[in-house]
Design goal:
Elements (H helix, E strand, L loop, with lengths): L1 E3 L1 E5 L6 E7 L4 E6 L4 E6 L4 E4 L9 E6 L5 E5 L2 E5 L7 E5 L7 E8 L5 E7 L7 E6 L4 E8 L2 E6 L5 E6 L4 E8 L4 E10 L6 E7 L5 E6 L3 E5 L5 E6 L5 E7 L5 E6 L13 E4 L14
Parallel strand pairs: 1-22
Antiparallel strand pairs: 2-25, 3-4, 4-5, 5-6, 7-8, 8-9, 9-10, 11-12, 12-13, 13-14, 15-16, 16-17, 17-18, 19-20, 20-21, 21-22, 23-24, 24-25
């Protein structure tokens, strides 16, 4: 196993930095601070970070996606919201988990065909009331359920496997993925974490099929090859590591968000970090719905 170093890309005390997404067109990294319901846009070259002025974000902001029309899709409270390009207010387009009052939205990502997947979690991660949903631009469909804290998701380079984090038991699940229909099958265990290095949070895949895993309460980022063997580890000066994503020129930089919520004696917690990975990453598609 090889050790890699991380550097601070942006020093900021984000309560819960999450869901980084790289915009190749803008050469900017979008990311969110969930409890503040803020969408940030970061310029790695200039070092400037800005909070987008978006009206209509009411409730906990769990995740978001860049849309092909230049706008955003956001999972906020019990609703999915669309911010059209050039608009100031995000408008509701669908609802989700309305029958679970103790749930909040959590991590989400766009699949290779442009559909948005997102999960929900029990507010205290104490009961398995969360679910995994898919949104194609027309309707929200519940795909799987029984998760106290649904979390990160990623796809293999060939698009035939979807990985999904069931955080509280420390599991990363794998499903066979049908790109045409968006259906999942053959749910199985891919990786299990015993808690000695925290719990798995956000994930992403690289061009060789390596899976990068953020360790909440573990202060590190790790990489596993397609066979599930650990190949790399990155120690970070922030215990609550939340989500990695590839960005920069040719997707040769791995950006990592962290959380300052509930952390003491770790002054860089909440900051955005950058790592030089051994192989480039895969792009995150835009939402096409």
């Amino acid at each position: 196993m090889k050790e890699l170093a991380a550097r601070v890309a942006l020093k900021i005390p984000a309560a819960l930095g999450e869901t980084p997404v790289w915009s190749a067109a803008e050469e900017r990294l979008y990311w969110i601070d969930c409890p503040a319901s803020e969408v940030h846009r970061f310029d790695p070259k200039g070092g400037k970070d800005e909070v987008l002025a978006i009206e209509g974000l009411e409730g906990y902001l769990g995740s978001f996606a860049l849309a092909a029309d230049g706008g955003l899709l956001l999972a906020c409270g019990k609703r999915l919201l669309r911010l059209r390009a050039g608009a100031k207010r995000a408008e509701a387009v669908a609802g989700a988990d309305a029958d679970q009052p103790e749930n909040d939205p959590n991590d989400g990502k766009v699949d290779p065909q442009g559909r948005y997947w997102f999960g929900t979690m029990h507010r205290d991660a104490a009961e398995p009331t969360g679910s995994l949903f898919r949104y194609d631009g027309k309707a929200v469909e519940k795909i799987d359920s029984g998760f106290a804290c649904s979390n990160g998701m990623a796809w293999s380079p060939d698009g035939r496997t979807m990985y999904f984090v069931d955080m509280m038991p420390g599991d990363i699940l794998a499903y066979d993925f049908d790109g045409g229909s968006g259906r999942l099958s053959n749910r199985r265990m891919h990786l299990h974490f015993d808690g000695s290095e925290g719990l798995p949070d956000g994930i992403c895949t690289d061009a060789q099929g390596g899976l990068w895993v953020a360790h909440w309460d573990g202060g590190c980022l790790t990489r596993y090859d397609a066979e599930g063997q650990r190949t790399h580890k990155v120690a970070l000066p922030a215990p609550r590591v939340t989500c990695p994503i590839f960005g920069g020129a040719d997707l040769n930089t791995l950006f990592v968000t962290t959380s300052a919520r509930g952390v003491e004696n770790a002054p860089l917690s909440g900051s955005l970090f950058a790592v030089d990975p051994p192989v480039p990453g895969l792009p995150v598609p835009a939402f096409l719905g």
